[in-house]
Design goal:
alpha+beta; 3 helices; 4-stranded antiparallel beta sheet; about 35% helix; globular; about 150 residues
Length: about 150
Amino acid sequence: MRPSVPKSVFVGIAGLSLAGTVAGCAPSATPAPTSDSTSGASTTPSGPASTLASSGSVYQDGTYSADGTYVSPNGTETVGVELTLAAGTVTAVNITQHHSSPNTRKFQGEFAGGIAAQVVGKSIDELKVSKVAGSSLTSGGFNQALDKIKAEAQ
């Protein structure tokens, strides 16, 4: 004999399934990055020219720097990023290592050695790195610094 389940239980489960499906299709809102004196971003514009990048955003030509953080097995780490922009395109990149352990030094060094090949010559709006030269965690700090630089360069 099968136990009897009230119809209201099935209706409730179906309603929750539908709500979950609809919620998964809803657009997510992400706040626009803001810039203030505590953001860690600094700017050295090279001239008055501004350019239109592929997404329609305007970026000022110049050299920008910011720090980004990420979590490693050793704790929270910081990586410094300096980008030079011309016409919305990255023309140069420099990584400042802020390592707290030999392991972090190794991975940030590998990241610094391989990042130029992935970002130089590309539109700043197209950048989102994930793994560079075997370093996957450092890219989180790079992407965070990149967001600060984008906000500062507009």
